[in-house]
Design brief:
Shape: globular
Strand content: over 45%
Number of strands: 34
Radius of gyration: 24 Å
Structural class: mainly beta
Distance between the termini: 54 Å
Helix content: under 10%
Length: 635
């Protein structure tokens, strides 16, 4: 109670200071002072940052967020649904627990769930994306729980045009999208609507979605208010996994005709920003997410989750040192009802954080910061538990600016991840609640920029203790396995990326990721972590064929990996594969047409694989497919 009272008091004081300052400034007619960080590729903590722009989505023809993150951002995906809505994102070598170790943000707000379900990527149409920040590396100081392997922040923004767009493609895919925006005095607003229907590649894998999104921006001379809303309805069918024999017989077949899930979901975000001092900006974020759904997976179930999030923070400069100081309060409610019983969980997470960027010399900067966090939960399932966890994260690094566009960095950062509701529900008897996962990452890299080319090289080692994951080892109490704190694990790797503007018409890009992810001790010492490919290679080029025509080609090679749950590496590896995609783009006056061709070589590969009962089960991915999109700019 004392901790929650302190947080509430801090929030009220912060709001009054910000609001009062903006009113006072309006009355005195004092011009605004906006604190803006220098434009650079490094994250605020000094680690690497990659930007994927809206124009890159347009050029590549990527039709959804999953495609863009995988082919443009180099993010590894794991998908068991076949529709992209519940895709797990992985940075720096995570397998079955990837979605709990890579944090996804929308406009800076975390959308991680209190249970193991991956965030819904389909609530953000690609037309709304302004840019995406990919921070590969530990970022727990700034972003808290789950920012272990990295952070992906999707920034949405007001569109330049009023658009209407429709698509038609393979597997009876069809969707339409409408965007309308306008402004009145100091208010800008935008409205988005989208309807999507597709049967997808496999039988019993249809996906229907309706979206209603919008944004409203208001600002005066000193303050700014932004409101975003996302409201969606989904209906999806689950085809399930196939054995090897079933794949050889017909890789498109479904093992059932009954499994499904349908839901209503919404996400609301309000941000207010105002100066509290000539050198300081005050920002407060308020958000709520809600999901209500029901479905059938071997038996009927009902599921709901609600999240409330508050983050007040300050950004400014003191004694030539850039600072970010803030607090976070999050409240989660989760409920699952099935024939196996009911799981109810309520939890609160509190944290205080700060990050400093101090110049030691003209080109040498010191980055240092810390976050303290506390989790309290009440879990009712097979048993009732009151759970309390604490965590501390820190970062310390140096950045040397070689020139205005190039720099080198070195840093040490610690991380943490709190256990989730269903992880604590399915543990072996005698273990009780799981421990907080903790880690330390050592990172270094260099970025070199020229007006015609750019090169990035990053190297790292990530050590984890008490990593939270599913352990397939059977016990008398849990014959199918249970969630556990694993023995120490270690991930070592590097990333090399670059781009080259050969001419005004021709550009090249590429990225190579290598990671050696292994169990560092215990029963499976030196075994590879399942679902992690050691090597991933991306390459692309864009060529302006004519004033109105552009051709884009991309290739993705994914190396071999062991299926999920195969901690002992006793099954055969899932072989590596290469995918080649193309996009042909035509633009004339108010019309834009794109023809996206996926899997040109018709490669047979898998979204996901899992090892159970001494055999491997597969989730086949689509064969060659095409999508035609036509867009008309209304204004």
């Amino acid at each position: 109670m004392k901790q929650s009272g302190i947080i509430v008091f801090f929030l009220l004081l912060f709001f009054l200071v910000c609001f009062g300052r903006s009113l006072w400034a309006e009355e005195k007619d004092i011009p605004s002072v906006v604190v803006r960080p220098a434009k650079k590729s490094a994250a605020m903590s000094g680690g690497p940052k990659k930007i994927v722009t809206h124009q890159q989505f347009v050029t590549s023809g990527a039709s959804n967020l999953s495609q863009g993150l995988q082919y443009l951002g180099g993010v590894t995906l794991h998908d068991t649904t076949g529709n992209g809505s519940q895709t797990s994102l992985s940075l720096r070598g995570f397998g079955g627990n990837a979605s709990s170790n890579t944090l996804l943000l929308i406009n800076g707000i975390p959308i991680a769930n209190p249970d193991l379900a991956a965030p819904n990527l389909n609530i953000i149409p690609v037309q709304e994306i302004k840019y995406i920040e990919i921070l590969a590396g530990t970022e727990s100081v700034l972003y808290g729980d789950q920012a272990v392997g990295g952070v992906i922040n999707i920034e949405t923004g007001l569109s330049t045009y009023n658009d209407i767009s429709c698509s038609l493609g393979s597997y009876k895919a069809r969707n339409c999208y409408l965007s309308l925006n306008n402004h009145y005095r100091n208010v800008d607003y935008q409205f988005f609507a989208k309807a999507e229907r597709t049967d997808n590649y496999r039988d019993h894998n249809a996906y229907h979605q309706n979206l209603l999104n919008g944004q409203l921006n208001w600002q005066n001379d000193v303050s700014r208010l932004r409101f975003d809303y996302h409201i969606g309805h989904e209906n999806m069918q689950y085809p399930g996994a196939l054995t090897g024999a079933q794949v050889r017989e017909n890789r498109r077949q479904s093992i059932n005709h009954s499994d499904f899930f349908k839901d209503w979901n919404d996400f609301l975000h309000l941000q207010y920003q105002a100066p509290v001092h000539p050198d300081w900006q005050g920002i407060i974020d308020l958000s709520t997410r809600d999901m209500r759904g029901n479905g059938f997976l071997m038996s009927p179930f009902d599921q709901s989750r609600t999240t409330y999030f508050i983050r007040p923070h300050l950004k400014g400069v003191y004694l030539n040192t850039h600072m970010t100081l803030g607090a976070e309060l999050q409240h989660d409610q989760y409920d699952l009802e099935s024939i196996f019983g009911e799981t109810k969980n309520q939890q609160q997470k509190y944290s205080l954080f700060g990050l400093l960027d101090a110049p030691l010399q003209e080109k040498l900067h010191l980055m240092m910061g810390a976050r303290g966090a506390f989790q309290h939960g009440d879990l009712t399932a097979q048993r009732s538990d009151r759970i309390n966890n604490r965590a501390f994260a820190s970062t310390l690094g140096l950045t040397y600016q070689i020139d205005s566009a190039s720099h080198v960095y070195v840093r040490r950062a610690t991380s943490y991840r709190f256990p989730k509701a269903d992880e604590n529900t399915f543990t072996d008897n005698g273990i009780g609640s799981l421990k907080t996962q903790r880690g330390v990452s050592y990172e270094s890299g260099v970025e070199w920029r020229h007006h015609d080319y750019g090169i990035n090289f990053d190297i790292y080692q990530l050590n984890l203790r008490d990593e939270i994951a599913f352990d397939p080892t059977p016990t008398p109490q849990q014959p199918w396995g249970s969630n556990r704190n694993l023995s120490p694990t270690k991930r070592r790797g590097f990333s090399l990326s670059g781009n080259y503007h050969a001419t005004d018409q021709l550009t090249f890009g590429g990225q190579y990721n290598f990671v050696n992810a292994r169990f560092a001790s215990g029963l499976n010492e030196d075994k590879r972590i399942p679902l992690v490919s050691e090597r991933i290679l991306l390459a692309n080029f864009a060529y302006q064929l004519h004033e109105h025509w552009q051709l884009y080609l991309e290739a993705l090679f994914t190396g071999s990996q062991f299926p999920a749950n195969d901690d002992a590496n006793q099954s055969r590896k899932i072989g590596g594969y290469m995918l080649i995609n193309a996009n042909l783009r035509f633009e004339y006056k108010k019309f834009l047409a794109t023809l996206r061709l996926n899997n040109l070589l018709n490669k047979a590969y898998y979204y996901y694989s899992i090892y159970q009962m001494n055999q491997v089960f597969y989730y086949p991915a689509p064969d060659r497919n095409v999508l035609l999109t036509i867009t008309y700019h209304l204004t």
